[in-house]
Design goal:
alpha/beta; 2 domains; 7-stranded parallel sheet; 41% helix
Amino acid sequence: MSHTAMLKILLVTPFSPSIGGGSVNLRTLIHGFKSSAVDWRFYGAGVGHNLIGASPLQGSFLKQWMQFGQIWTGHVTGELQRLIDSVSSISAEVCWLVLHNEMLPLAVQLRKRFGQKMHLSVHDDVPEAIYARSRRFRHLRWLARRFQRLHLPAFTSMDVTSVNMQRYYQEEYRLNSTVVHPVVWNSVLAPESSLSDDELRIGHIGSLYSRREWLCMLAGAERWAKDTGRRIRIDIIGNPGQDAVPPAGFSGTVKFVGQMEENEAIQLLSHCHVLYAMYPFDRRHRVFRETSQPTKLSTYMRVARPIFCHAPIGSSLGFFLERFNVGCECTSLDPRDIAQSIGQMMRKQFLRNSYKQALTQEYGPENSRLLEHMLQTCASR
């Protein structure tokens, strides 16, 4: 009996397969591949047999600045060459790269080995999202922007994380791409939980991109809680850092619960009235908030509690909430407006079927099938 050979895919990421966030999303997609074998290699922080090297940016602050300038102007540094050699030595029919950090300069060099048999996944735009948020490299992101405009259009197989990002790359680069979301293989919603009537309980997972917006939200929540005679409790899952620490005199309770398995997180968040998600309001984060999709969103959908989107008008998250009616958007930093938005959200009824619909339409198994088909098509070139 003959068996169809498995397609050999080489996946390269600048982060370990064992961490959360982007790695979790990739694992959900790979889980559904039917006729492909993925050899996942990574560089950067971490350990393991599949580690192929260190980050191309090494050493002191000044040295990293110099390396950044070299890499993003097309020069091949010693560490970048070692990564090129490592990846080029691996047998594969198609090379799949996650376009994060310094991956595009590596991808440009790997075209000499793989030609058109290369596929890119974009979860965040590199110059205007990743480097715009970086304290170290934000002032050099114009180099990455120029390099991206010059080289990215040469790659013709690419998936992106949102409709807004798809539109952005079409308008800015004349690039066609396909929207691929992670897959939620267990789409069962959390059981309905009783909610306290004398408390405003807010849940959050992961990073806070800006302390300013967070402090404004806390002030707005305090204002609404005071007007309604409720206590405030905020549950934060993950390691958001010092930006999440409330200001002195904050009247509520903030519980930092650390990392949790997804089912445990869902159980905890199901007791919250509101789930918080934000994007920075400043101009330099415009592309980031208008094109990215929060990793936490699929988990929030399973919790089936309304999402409080704190972002300026035009965010991809706001577009998602409007489409599926699974939360409300507050586009102001004024605590009075935030308090008013919280009140509107608390009074509004959100149907559990809306969360189920969002999971089915956005995070279904067809995403895995679609991505595998793209990789197969890429390999046949």
